[in-house]
């Protein structure tokens, strides 16, 4: 289990990381303060919540919101850092957050969510707890040093790619893939290797693969696959409602072109992951 935890933690960090560049001030002036060094806005009305409610909210947040806002609410691939949100800072026990979650922001790519009030309250509790923790930290830089990724063996990675990993079944080292190491470097390459789903702008709904979920009780829900990892799957139905389920508790039908990447997360050891990364870097 240890190697799976290490792989998944890195995958989560990679999905949530946002490169931050230092900004220079006016001519002759001192450098402007980096966004990473600025503390989040203070909560207007400090709030506390029961630990059990926060814990319940964490699991619900991860399944419903984590793929955009990060598992810790500190920002993801397409969603902003909620711990730095002025709306969250001004929220009082969900008076602003709950209506937003229910209505969504379709123009900004955020769907509406139909959730029981207990789940909504738990999510609000988790977001406020995450914000309280963020306020106590010095800055908020979330990055990976490229040097930390350079621990693999390219030859071992090639053997895994063509053998036990099964990568060569889908990826032929020819054409555009033959230069993947030249087109993507460092963290960007690792991102695409571990979780190529949702890279760049969000795919249009009609381009997402159709999926049908059957629950343990026999209920079926059809829609388009919006997110999937080793633990959670989310589909969006015809009415643009999102539905999330633990993968282990439902039957999933549909053609997910990235299924092998999702399942690969459970098979990688930490060494395998860095070896394959080293091999992909050599493809130039």
For the termini, the CA-CA separation is 34 Å
Proportion of residues in β-strands = 5-15%
CATH superfamily of the largest domain: Cytochrome c-like domain
Whole-number average pLDDT?
79
Shape: globular
**Would you tell me which CATH topology of the largest domain applies?**
Cytochrome Bc1 Complex, Chain D, domain 2
Structural class: alpha+beta
Instruction: Count up the helices.
Output: 11
- Roughly what percent helix? 25-40%
Under the CATH scheme, which architecture of the largest domain would be assigned? Orthogonal Bundle
Low-pLDDT sequence parts: 1-36, 199-206
Q: What's the Cα radius of gyration?
A: 20 Å
Number of domains: 3
Largest sheet: 5 strands, antiparallel
| CATH hierarchy class name of the largest domain | Mainly Alpha
Number of E strands: 5
Widest sheet, order of strands: 4-3-2-1-5
What does the oligomeric state look like here?
Answer: single chain
Helix and strand pattern: HHHHHHHHHEEEEEHH
Could you explain the architecture of this structure?
Strands 4-3-2-1-5 form a 5-stranded antiparallel sheet, with no helix packed on it. The longest helix is centred in the middle third of the chain and has 19 residues, at 117-135. The radius of gyration is 20 Å and the shape is globular. It has 3 domains: 37-135, Cytochrome c-like domain (Cytochrome Bc1 Complex, Chain D, domain 2), CATH 1.10.760.10; 146-196 and 262-281, no CATH class; 206-257, SH3 type barrels, CATH 2.30.30. The two termini are 34 Å apart. It contains 11 helices and 5 strands, in the order H-H-H-H-H-H-H-H-H-E-E-E-E-E-H-H. Helix 2 (51-64) packs across helix 6 (117-135) and helix 9 (186-194) packs across helix 11. It has helices spanning 2-16, 51-64, 66-69, 86-90, 97-103, 117-135, 154-162, 180-183, 186-194, 259-267, 270-281; strands at residues 210-214, 220-228, 232-236, 242-246, 251-254. With 284 residues, it is α+β, with helices and mostly antiparallel strands. 38% of the residues lie in helices and 10% in strands.
